Amino acid sequence: MSRQQFSQQLRRERELRGWSQARLAAELGTTPNTVSAWERGISLPSPFFREKLCALLERNAQEMGLIQAEAKEEALQDISYTTIEIPSNEQKPIEQTIFSHKTAPTNVAPQIINRPLDIPEETRPPANKKARKLLLLTAILLILSLLIGAGSIYLTAQQPNPYTQKGTLVLEDTLAAQNLHLNWQEGWNENHASCQFRREAYFSYQPLEGFFHACIAQATNYQNFAYEVEMTLLSGDYGGLIFRSMNSIDSKYYLFRIHTDGRYALKLYIDKVDDHAPMLAEGTSAAIRTGIAQTNLLAVVADKETISLYANHQKLATIQNNTYTHGQIGLFAGNEMQAPAEGFFRNLKVWTW
């Protein structure tokens, strides 16, 4: 089946059950915007949500049209990506991974299972006072170490943001893999633009000239915050941050971008037409590392109607605008004349107050 046939099949299965898009999204653990994008043929579900869809609707992947649709996207992928070697955080080569849906969320603690040790009778220590004292001392030291560790985590979380020295660190994501609590977009759209986790980073790819491709954390919603991330452009002209996204499907958000030539801009998107987006701030800055394959630390501080932009801890501009007061965060790569555009992102942090 084609992408269109999959979207039609999904809509038919949902309507047969009398479900709204919001109900289907709730059953899957995603957002109505995501379901709408699937049914409109804008994007395909990631492998994680394909498995959930098949189980929920009691249909296999072939009946849903996912097998052939996935094969088509994989064939497109073979010719889509810029082949530039990217070092991992551990500075060792890593094989490209298309999806990381089987990876546990980065902020979920591993389950610890306590099992009794099967110690032979002849090797067990004698039950005397000395042994009991040793066990008690060991237990006390273990409790102290846990308390110290918990205190360190608490202090780290309480550290204010480095831009305005206030707020609490509520999100710290390496972007090495999908985080189900954030629900980053994954997959391809009809233009073969994509959002993917691979090589221990989150990639945005746009093959068309004159466009950018937004990748949204669909389960986020922040009002007053500081938001920073490391960005590296591999090709294209610009990339950056999306914030206070009221509706990512209809492109209602703020967009902060830097260019490879040192320019920056902040635009207010009210629909999908770039020419309709008012320019709120623009300029050039020596704080921006120029050229391809340069890593820049970008940040936005949004405090009520005051919005400040940063590059590598240097303030670029401050403006006043209250069109959007809260919403999702996102990332993107784009181009003006240097297609395709591809960039990857790592080490995202958000502080709120």
From TrEMBL:
Top-level taxon in the UniProt lineage: Bacteria
**UniProt keyword Transmembrane helix present:** yes
Family matches, as InterPro entries: Cro/C1-type_HTH (IPR001387), Lambda_DNA-bd_dom_sf (IPR010982)
- State the UniProt keywords alphabetically: Membrane, Transmembrane, Transmembrane helix
This entry's Gene Ontology molecular function terms read: DNA binding
Keyword Acyltransferase belongs to the record: no
Which positions fall inside the HTH cro/C1-type domain?
A: 10-64
User: Transmembrane region positions?
Assistant: 134-155
Name the chain's protein.
Helix-turn-helix protein
